[in-house]
């Protein structure tokens, strides 16, 4: 045991004894750790530098400058080498610095190598594992290196942090004054005015079981059972997202409702030929040509996006929740229709079974499997490949579920991402 670790351990023992027990159980010896030198030096874990190798203090000051100087509370995600903690604590306006560990083994290793007692002993500091909390705290700074190195236990919070950091970039296609957005909304205005308000569907299925069907690869395992259920006289209501519509029809499964929100959806995804008995629920950014050709009933609503502000005032319709993916309004619709329990099919948010989507070729609906560089934990506790936007969509669905405790949510598969707030369905998830 190094001299640094003894002092650090004593500081943690005095304030957070249970936390020290957890840190002592971390396997820091398994880490691939190297000293990296430049004008200064830093620690590299699996090729990821924890800090600058040239001037750690200057880097920490630049990071601190991005945070509100007058905030009495700051949340720091990642422990680094202790540099940012020290800089933040120089601010007399700071009353509490909550440090959230993103990788327990990395922090345990740093405690062995460097003296961290100065910030550990500061009474304004609170320390804990990020994964102990269900949600991120604001305002925050997340150390970039530890967003990459986050361990399995803290992965859910890592995903929320990355989603929050990328929020402005993800919304770049939906600028309020974009000419493309304005043109699409203008072209759909007449249909929005004449089509039924989605609110007319709210409350029409009280207590009913509703299946919400997405396009994840695990959906393929359920085609046969869904076909059997669809043929029953007394059955759940079937709501599917737009990209699941064609694969379902191909399998002889006719959904009751299709939900579409994306301006990129075309007739390839929503062929109109067999749609006479199927309800389409849409947002105004959907291609008007798709809407015109649809043979069944059409219902329209809005999301909370500012792109719909003016149209909402001129043509009032109800609102559905959208968190980046069509899965969100589909689930929200099920809840607002009165569902007592919702079973999710194909809601994988990942690429299990080395596939991207059910019923589509690799890359037809977006990036190819080979482009997946990120991961989430599946229902077996294993890492499964995914992409960043899928992780963001998962975060938003989990937040929605947490906000509706009276509805029971079931996941039909363990092969995709584990969805917090859901229970694995005893029949479908076998």
From TrEMBL:
Protein name as it appears in the record: Motility accesory factor maf-2
6-hydroxymethylpterin diphosphokinase MptE-like domain: residues covered: 194-352
Superkingdom of the organism of origin: Bacteria
Origin species: Pseudomonas chlororaphis
Main EC class the enzyme belongs to: transferase
EC number(s) on file: 2.6.1.-
One GO MF term attached to the UniProt entry: transaminase activity
InterPro entries in the cross-refs: MptE-like (IPR002826)
Keywords: Aminotransferase, Transferase
UniProt keyword annotation of Transferase present: yes
UniProt keyword annotation of Transferase present: yes
């Amino acid at each position: 045991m190094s001299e640094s670790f003894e002092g650090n351990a004593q500081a943690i023992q005095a304030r957070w004894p249970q936390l020290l027990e957890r840190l002592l159980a971390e396997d820091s010896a398994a880490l691939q750790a190297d000293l990296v030198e430049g004008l200064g030096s830093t620690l590299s874990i699996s090729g990821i530098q924890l800090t600058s190798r040239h001037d750690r203090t200057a880097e920490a000051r630049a990071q601190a400058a991005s945070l509100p100087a007058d905030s009495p509370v700051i949340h720091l995600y990642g422990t680094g080498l202790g540099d940012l903690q020290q800089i933040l604590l120089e601010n007399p306006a700071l009353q509490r610095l909550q440090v959230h560990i993103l990788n327990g083994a990395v922090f345990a290793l740093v405690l062995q190598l460097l003296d961290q007692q100065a910030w550990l002993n500061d009474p304004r500091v609170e320390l804990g594992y990020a994964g102990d909390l269900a949600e991120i705290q604001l305002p925050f700074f997340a150390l970039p290196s530890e967003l990459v190195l986050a361990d399995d236990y803290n992965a859910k919070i890592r995903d929320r942090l990355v989603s929050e950091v990328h929020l402005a970039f993800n919304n770049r296609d939906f600028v309020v004054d974009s000419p493309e957005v304005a043109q699409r909304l203008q072209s759909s205005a007449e249909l929005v005015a004449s089509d039924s308000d989605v609110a007319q569907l709210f409350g029409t299925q009280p207590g009913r079981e509703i299946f919400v069907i997405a396009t994840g690869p695990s959906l393929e395992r359920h085609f046969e059972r869904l076909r059997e259920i669809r043929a029953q006289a007394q059955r759940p209501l079937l709501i599917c997202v737009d990209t699941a519509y064609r694969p379902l029809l191909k399998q002889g499964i006719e959904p009751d409702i299709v939900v579409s929100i994306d301006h990129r959806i075309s007739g390839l995804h929503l062929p109109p030929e067999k749609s006479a008995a199927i309800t389409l629920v849409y947002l105004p950014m959907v291609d008007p040509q798709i809407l015109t050709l649809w043979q069944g009933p059409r219902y329209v609503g809005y999301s909370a996006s500012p792109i719909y502000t003016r149209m909402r005032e001129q043509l009032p319709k109800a609102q559905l929740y959208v968190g980046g993916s069509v899965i969100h309004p589909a689930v929200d619709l099920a809840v607002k229709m009165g569902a007592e329990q919702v079973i999710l099919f194909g809601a994988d948010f990942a690429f299990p079974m080395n596939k991207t989507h059910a019923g589509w070729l690799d890359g037809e609906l977006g990036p190819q499997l080979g482009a997946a560089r990120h991961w989430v934990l599946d229902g077996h506790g294993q890492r499964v490949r995914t992409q960043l936007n899928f992780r963001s969509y998962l975060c938003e669905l989990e937040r929605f579920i947490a906000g509706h405790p009276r509805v029971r949510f079931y996941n039909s598969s363990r092969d995709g991402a584990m969805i917090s707030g859901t229970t694995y369905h005893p029949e479908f998830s076998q």
